[in-house]
Design a protein that fits this description.
- This protein is an alpha+beta fold and about 80 residues long.
- It has a domain at about 5-55: 3-Layer(aba) Sandwich (YefM-like fold).
- Helices cover about 30% and strands about 20% of the residues.
- The protein has four helices and three strands, in the order βααββαα.
- The protein has a three-stranded mixed beta sheet with strand order 1-2-3.
- A hairpin with a 2-residue loop joins β2 (about 25-30) and β3 (about 35-40).
- The radius of gyration is 26 Å and the shape is elongated.
Length: about 80
Amino acid sequence: MPITTVSSRAFNQAASEIKRAASNGPVFITDRGRPAHVLMTFEDYQRLAQQRRSIAAALAMPVEGADIDFVPPRAKIEAREVDLT
């Protein structure tokens, strides 16, 4: 998927062409040489928006992995004498 970069001035002068370019991949629109906006097709936006998931869903263990036994080793904590020199 190619990424196209255009200045805001070029976007204003050739909006139709740039909208057509968005059907091939995202178009970065720059202001003073820095990316400011991204133009993409509505279908690409919907696909991207549907990928959102909560942190709980991202960290949840899949059902097929639910039978994993995990027993972490116990930490051994001991007191030490303080060196006052």
